[in-house]
Amino acid sequence: PQMSDDNPFVIPEMDPTLRKQIQECNWQVVNVTTPANYFHVLRRQIHRDFRKPLIVTAPKNLLRHKECKSNLSEFDDVEGHPGFDKQGTRFKRLIKDRNDHKEVEEGINRLVLCSGKVYYELDDERKKSERSDVAICRVEQLSPFPYDLIQRELKRYPNAEIVWCQEEPMNMGAYSYISPRLYSAMKTLGRGTFEDIKYVGRAPSAATATGFLTVHVQEQSELVKKALQPELIKFP
Ligand SMILES: *[C@@H]1O[C@H](CO)[C@@H](O)[C@H](O)[C@H]1NC(C)=O
Ligand SMILES: *[C@@H]1O[C@H](CO)[C@@H](O)[C@H](O)[C@H]1NC(C)=O
């Protein structure tokens, strides 16, 4: 993601009909978490009247995940199908919380942003711990950064503490790409500074993972719990 050439401190013109942001960026990096979104990102790529490299970093183990599925209605736009949306089905750069939240939800204390398969673990932990004050949004397109949709979600949860959760060590994954851009999005809305982005993930490390399965599993469960209880987090 760091090879994306957009300036993290300048929010570009975001009008989706102009498609200016994507035209000005060197490539697209996506980490899709549903079959329908995978389908739509490939379809979008072919349908566009311009060409831009597309990098899909979605892991193949999601293909076997039982929660990772889409209704047929999410692939087409046949009126009458469950989930029919007048705008038609399309690639989602960001997937909103799966609970149908209103335009403004003051009771949400925590907005967890994540990307990739860790979403399913977070959602599972939220179910188990019955945290109804936590919203989880998936950033499906990392680059170019979906400022407009991120800001829409920041406005939806005016009282929420903002958490970036990833399973990778801090110096890997999307954190170093996301954080300055998330900061820019927050700053223009008066939602705080860099320190208000709570990081939940593994500590910086030279290796992508510990070599021990039991340690890995323990780390994973700790970080997922931490994302829902950032009282436990100290900056950074
Ligand atoms: C898929 O369709 C079923 C039945 O209509 C519905 O209950 C479910 O919420 C839908 N799932 C999604 C992800 O839209
Ligand atoms: C995409 O998600 C997968 C699985 O969660 C993760 O391993 C990978 O590092 C993510 N890619 C980026 C660029 O964040």
Automatic annotation (TrEMBL):
Q: Which domain of life is it from?
A: Eukaryota
The answer to whether UniProt assigns keyword Signal to this entry is: no
Please identify the protein, giving its name as recorded. Answer: Multifunctional 2-oxoglutarate metabolism enzyme C-terminal domain-containing protein
The family classification in the record reads: Belongs to the alpha-ketoglutarate dehydrogenase family.
Q: Which GO terms describe its cellular component?
A: mitochondrion; oxoglutarate dehydrogenase complex
InterPro entries, per database record: 2oxoglutarate_DH_E1, KGD_C_sf, ODO-1/KGD_C, THDP-binding, Transketolase-like_Pyr-bd
Q: Name one GO molecular function term.
A: oxoglutarate dehydrogenase (succinyl-transferring) activity
**Quick one: a GO biological-process term for this protein?**
tricarboxylic acid cycle
What residue stretches are annotated with the Transketolase-like pyrimidine-binding domain?
26-64
Q: Which organism is it from?
A: Aegilops tauschii subsp. strangulata (Goatgrass)
**Keyword annotations:** Oxidoreductase, Thiamine pyrophosphate
